[in-house]
Design a protein that fits this description.
Helix content is 82%, strand content 0%. The chain is built from 18 helices and no strands. The chain has helices at residues 2-24, 28-56, 58-77, 82-96, 100-110, 114-145, 155-169, 183-206, 208-228, 245-275, 280-286, 288-308, 311-331, 337-363, 371-401, 406-434, 438-451, 454-463. Helix 10 packs antiparallel against helix 14 and helix 13 packs antiparallel against helix 14 (337-363). The two termini are 41 Å apart. Residues 455-464 have low confidence and may be disordered.
Length: 464
């Protein structure tokens, strides 16, 4: 239920963007910030939320997240202008940062058998498909009948029910040894993500020279993380995780896949409503060919990971996502209904297969005591990818449209954005092939051994 409200929030809001744009007189960059402030705050806070849950109790942090997210959703529905909506979306994200990585840590510590865990993760991840299927329809219906504010009301009853069920049924758990807070590392992460996103979104309107200092700040923050974090005994981001090729691959694949998702939803929603002139509900119906395959393929992907490992679903995902985006980039699939349906269906199949192997690979082989941190890094990669996808594709679109008539210029202006999404699909395909072989598994085993505590290493050697 927590994954449902966090995931459905963006799919519902994407359908509401044109209505919100008209009501609040928002520019393209304003729409980008409405989406990106949410994913940006999530990306910045997921890792400390995961480690805090390992330290003070997963159930406690999870319930706090539900309360804050539900309250933030209610505030969003009351926003009177774009600025207040952006602020309240940030409040939502503070709560959301305490949900998904903590839920994944709870699952990881409940299902210890690798096959059972892979299937549980696949089932859990299928909720993303459910949100993608239900989000456009529910959002379109609410926008057409009530208005864009209603899309935030959905989260309130679901959040309250989830809070009650968590109180009754979820056991409390903690890590035997969790990382200490790392305020310097957290500040560097916020500076990196925030400055980079601002530079990308604002460059079309402000110009390259105006955003250059923010790009320099992002680079400085990245270098600071690389220098500072290895010096800490318990860093916010344990760079040793990335010595595992599967973990590094899963992180990069998550960025590419979710960048593709963010850009795909952003372009599709604006095209269907602002260019084709469809209502919000009809636009939601048109997105079903993308959403339904995600719903159907996600649990299948989980079973495939449990039976054959992450390689087959990642290759399927990479091929389908690449071809789906390429149809729009090179062949103008949006010119015909058949092309639009085929492109949406292929993308939905690809995205349906990609989530379970990312999550399973990120936590497999890692010590259970660090499950929250590992899952949080994977979740951070997803949110960072979606943030960058909307930022880059939106910036390309804004630069291409310029002062031209929006409807006439949209298709041509969106073409470079579709090429960006094609590149994201190729990233999934290539890294899925490179980071799932024997060499990659060997690096994962070596990394897990380095990360294990001395007592755990001695026990493992004794068993051997």
């Amino acid at each position: 239920m927590s994954l449902l409200i966090v995931s459905i929030d963006n799919t519902i809001l994407n359908v509401a963007l044109p209505s919100l744009q008209r009501d609040l007189d928002a520019s393209t960059s304003g729409l980008q910030w409405t989406i990106d402030v949410y994913t940006l705050v999530l990306a910045a806070l997921l890792m400390p939320a995961g480690s805090a849950a390992d330290r003070i109790g997963r159930k406690r942090v999870f319930m706090t997240g539900l309360v804050v997210f539900t309250a933030g959703s209610l505030l969003c529905s009351l926003a009177t202008d774009l600025s207040s909506l952006v602020v309240f979306r940030g409040v939502q994200a503070v709560g959301g940062s305490m949900l998904n990585p903590v839920a994944m840590s709870i699952i990881t510590n409940t299902f210890t058998d690798p096959r059972e865990r892979a299937r549980a993760i696949g089932l859990w991840a299928s909720v993303v498909g459910l949100s993608m299927a239900a989000g456009p329809l529910v959002g379109g219906l609410l926008v057409d009948s009530v208005g864009w504010r209603a899309v935030f009301w959905v989260n309130v009853p679901v959040g309250l029910v989830a809070l009650l069920l968590t109180l009754l049924f979820v056991p409390e758990s903690r890590a035997a040894h969790a990382r200490r807070p790392d305020p310097v590392g957290q500040l560097l992460v916020i500076l990196l993500f925030g400055a980079l996103t601002y530079a990308i979104i604002e460059v079309p309107s402000a110009g390259f020279l105006a955003v250059l200092p923010f790009g320099a700040l992002a680079l400085a923050a990245l270098l600071g993380l690389l220098v500072y974090e290895p010096r800490r005994a318990e860093p916010l981001i344990d760079l040793r995780f990335f010595r595992s090729a599967p973990f590094s691959g899963a992180t990069a694949i998550a960025v590419g896949a979710f960048a593709s998702l963010g850009g795909f939803l952003f372009l599709s929603t604006l095209y269907l409503q602002n260019v084709r002139g469809l209502s919000a509900l009809h636009a939601g119906l048109w997105m079903l060919p993308m959403a339904v395959p995600v719903l159907l393929c996600a649990p299948l992907s989980g079973r495939l990971v449990g039976a054959r490992g992450p390689r087959p679903p990642l290759l399927i995902a990479g091929v389908a996502m690449t071809v789906g985006a390429l149809l729009f980039a090179a062949f103008g699939a949006e010119r015909s209904d058949a092309g639009l349906l085929l492109g949406y269906a292929l993308f939905g199949i690809g995205f349906g297969f990609v989530n379970a192997p990312i999550t399973n690979t990120a936590v497999s082989g890692m010590p259970r005591s660090q499950a929250g941190v590992a899952a949080a890094i994977a979740s951070t990669s997803r949110q960072l990818g979606q943030t960058l996808g909307v930022a880059v594709v939106g910036a390309v679109l804004a630069a291409g449209v310029g002062a031209s008539a929006y409807r006439d210029a949209f298709v041509t202006a969106a073409r470079p954005g579709w090429w960006v999404l094609t590149g994201c699909g190729l990233t999934v395909l290539v890294l899925g092939a490179l980071t799932t072989g024997r060499w990659a598994r060997r690096t994962a085993d070596e990394t897990a051994e380095r990360l294990a505590s001395p007592a755990a290493r001695d026990a493992a050697q004794t068993r051997a």
